[in-house]
TrEMBL record:
It is an enzyme of class 1 (oxidoreductase). Gene3D superfamilies: 3.40.50.970. The gene is 6045117. It comes from Culex quinquefasciatus. This is 2-oxoisovalerate dehydrogenase subunit alpha. It comes from the Eukaryota.
C-alpha cells in the first residue's frame, strides 16, 4: 500500500507540473488557426521564437514557401500596366532620368575602350543596370548617405558628379578627389554624401548599418542610409552580420541588392539556394521589397516606399532589384567563357532599361530622336576631350601617400616619409617623377 500511495503522489505531482509548464509555455492563439492538419493548442512563449503548437511534426520545405513577388510598373513596350502605379513624374524629371542613363551608358563605352587601349588599369561598366541606379537615386534625399559597392556610378551621375570627376578618378591624377589612391571606378564624394568605394566585397554593408544607427540616435533625424551590393556579395559574412545588426538594432538602413544574375563568373543558380536575397529578409525579421530593376518607375516607387518605411519606423528593409548584367563583370573578365552570347540579346534590346523608358517617352510625345542623337554626340565629345585632358594632368605628390591618415602626422609616418625621400633622391632615375606633382 505504501508503494501505491507513493506512486499516486508522484503521478499527481507530475500532472501538476505538466499543467504549470503548459500554462507557462502557451497562450491563447490570437492570430487565427495554425496552418496544419492538427489544431493549435496555443502560441509558444519560448524566448527564441513564438509560433503555434501543433500535434504532429511539420516539415517546411523551401518549395512550400511562396516566393516574394516582383513589382513592376511598365512592360517592355513602356506601357504602365496599372495607372495607379504611375509615379506622376514631370516631363523634366523623366527627361533627366533618361539623359542620365544615356550619359552613363555612353561614358561606360568610351572608358571601357580606354582601358582596352592601356590608358587606364581597370574599368567596370553598368550596362543593363542603369535604371536601378537612377531610379533609386531619384527617390532619395540628397542628404541621405550612400554606401556603394562598385557598380552604382549612376547614383553619382544623378547627384551631380561630373564627367571630369569620373575621368579624373579613373586616371588617378591630382584633380581626383581621392588623390589617385584608389583603383579606377572606386568613386567617393563627401559633398554628395557618397562614401568612397572599397574593393573587398560586402565591407560597406555593416558600415552602412553602423552609420544608420548613428543617425537614429540623433534627435529629429530625417536621413537614412542606403547601401548597394550584388547577390554575390550577399553571401559574404559581412552581409549576414549586417542584416542581423540592422534588425536587432532597428536601424534606418535600406539594404539594396542588385541581383544581376552573376557573381563575377558564377551564375546565381550556382551561387545560392532559396528565393534570392529578398527571401532571406523574413528570416532576419526584416521587411522586404522585390522589384523589376530594368523598370525605372518600379525602382523609383519601391525606393520611395522603402525610404518612407525606414524613416517612419526606424527599421531596416531589404530591397532586391531583379536585372541582368549585360556587360562582362569587369575588364578582368570574359563573360563569353561562362554564358552564350545569345542570352544577352533580349536583355540588350526589349528588356533594356533605356529602351523601356524611351518607349514610354515616345508614347507621351516626350522623345525627340534628333535631340537625343545630338545629346549622345555631345557627351562623346565631352568624354573624349576630358580623357585627353586628364591624361596630361600630373599625379598627386607622392608624399601625400603618408598624409590624410591622421589629423596630425605621427612620428613613425614622418620617419617613413623621410626614408622614402632619401631613397627616391638616391635612385630617382628609376622613378617617373615627371608624372607627379612637384
Amino acid at each position: 500500500m505504501s508503494l501505491l500511495r507513493s506512486a499516486s503522489v508522484l503521478a499527481g505531482r507530475l500532472a501538476s507540473r505538466n499543467q504549470l509548464a503548459l500554462k507557462c509555455l502557451t497562450t491563447r492563439a490570437i492570430h487565427g488557426e495554425a496552418q496544419s492538419s492538427e489544431p493549435a493548442t496555443g502560441l509558444a512563449k519560448f524566448p527564441g521564437a513564438q509560433a503555434a503548437f501543433v500535434g504532429k511534426p511539420t516539415l517546411v520545405l523551401p518549395e512550400h514557401v511562396e516566393s516574394v513577388p516582383i513589382y513592376r510598373v511598365m512592360n517592355a513596350d513602356g506601357v504602365i500596366e496599372d495607372a495607379s502605379q504611375d509615379p506622376g513624374l514631370s516631363r523634366e524629371v523623366v527627361h533627366k532620368m533618361f539623359r542620365d542613363m544615356v550619359l552613363l551608358n555612353t561614358m561606360d563605352k568610351i572608358l571601357y575602350e580606354s582601358q582596352r587601349q592601356g590608358r587606364i588599369s581597370f574599368y567596370m561598366t553598368n550596362f543593363g543596370e542603369e535604371a536601378s541606379h537612377i531610379g533609386s537615386a531619384a527617390a532619395l534625399s540628397p542628404e541621405d548617405w550612400v554606401y556603394g559597392q562598385y557598380r552604382e556610378a549612376g547614383v553619382l551621375v544623378w547627384r551631380g558628379f561630373t564627367i571630369s570627376d569620373f575621368i579624373n578618378q579613373c586616371y588617378g591624377n591630382r584633380e581626383d578627389e581621392g588623390k589617385g589612391r584608389q583603383m579606377p571606378v572606386h568613386y567617393g564624394s563627401k559633398k554628395l554624401n557618397f562614401v568612397t568605394i572599397s574593393s573587398p566585397l560586402g565591407t560597406q554593408i555593416p558600415q552602412a548599418v553602423g552609420a544608420a544607427y548613428a543617425f537614429k540616435r540623433q534627435p529629429d533625424n530625417q536621413r537614412v542610409v542606403i547601401t548597394y551590393f550584388g547577390e554575390g556579395a550577399a553571401s559574404e559574412g559581412d552581409a549576414h552580420a549586417a542584416f542581423n545588426f540592422a534588425a536587432t538594432l532597428d536601424c534606418p538602413v535600406m539594404l539594396f541588392c542588385r541581383n544581376n544574375g552573376f557573381a563575377i563568373s558564377t551564375p546565381s543558380k550556382e551561387q545560392y539556394r532559396g528565393d534570392g536575397i529578398a527571401g532571406r529578409a523574413a528570416g532576419y525579421g526584416i521587411a522586404t521589397l522585390r522589384f523589376d530593376g530594368t523598370d525605372i518607375f518600379a525602382v523609383y516607387n519601391a525606393t520611395k516606399m522603402a525610404r518612407e518605411y525606414v524613416l517612419k519606423n526606424n527599421k531596416p528593409i531589404v530591397m532586391e532589384a531583379m536585372q541582368y548584367r549585360i556587360s562582362h563583370h569587369s575588364t578582368s573578365d570574359d563573360s563569353t567563357a561562362y554564358r552564350p552570347a545569345e542570352d544577352l540579346e533580349i536583355w540588350n534590346t526589349t528588356e533594356h532599361p533605356i529602351s523601356k523608358l524611351k518607349n514610354f517617352m515616345k508614347q507621351r510625345g516626350w522623345f525627340d530622336e534628333a535631340a537625343e542623337g545630338a545629346h549622345v554626340k555631345a557627351i562623346r565629345k565631352q568624354v573624349l576631350a576630358q580623357i585627353n585632358q586628364s591624361e596630361k594632368i600630373p599625379k598627386a605628390d607622392w608624399r601625400e601617400t603618408f598624409q590624410d591618415v591622421y589629423h596630425e602626422m605621427p612620428q613613425h609616418l614622418r620617419d617613413q616619409m623621410k626614408q622614402m625621400e632619401e631613397h627616391i633622391e638616391k635612385h630617382k632615375e628609376h622613378y617617373p617623377l615627371k608624372d607627379f606633382k612637384n
